Automatic annotation (TrEMBL):
PANTHER family (UniProt xref): EXPORTED PROTEIN, L,D-TRANSPEPTIDASE
A Pfam family reported for this protein in Swiss-Prot or TrEMBL: YkuD
Pathway assigned to this chain's UniProt record: Cell wall biogenesis; peptidoglycan biosynthesis
Protein name in the entry: L,D-transpeptidase
Amino acid sequence: MALGSAPAAAASAAACSASAGPHQKQVEKFLGLKVDGKQSTADCKKIRAFQNEHGITPALGYAGPLTWRTMNTMLEQRAAGKNPNKAGKCPVDKGRIACVDLTRQLSWIQDGKKLAFGPVPVRTGKDGDETRTGAKKIYWRNIDHVSSIYKVKMPYAQFFDGGQAFHSVTKSVWNPPGSAGCVNMRHADAKAYWKRLKNGDDVYVYGRKPGT
């Protein structure tokens, strides 16, 4: 370690924004803080903890657009409840189908009109590497897949469009900016999808991810 790097790192870690961000009140409300639009030390620490948990950088406790966008996506996911297909955008005439709503970053499995599993939060493709929309089918599955391009593990991989697949990740599914096109899932959710889906099952992707 280079001389002086530890103090510099400590100083950086201790940095906390004293400024109120453009989404201060929304962020305060989301985190259960006093909603006054004014930044406090307590506000900054709570905001920064959220940023660190989900890999939002720089984690300075500033209530900026990316932090609020992440929180707003969470609110939309919660609002979906147990009726994620209320708007009828995912087909209900296909039998078993895995639906992916890019706008809300949600996925679920339907049996016709019946909700079979979910909804669960997902992390889809970032700007320039968007998860492609439209009707797909699962065509290849590999429980212990390792990407030949990115050299990373993709547990419970179920491919449905070129190199794009459902698979488990260890990082937060709310971690921006997103994947390289795959539908990233929490481990338990990816495992549940693995048990419920098979080759030939339908997948339908629609909407547009915030920030793309």
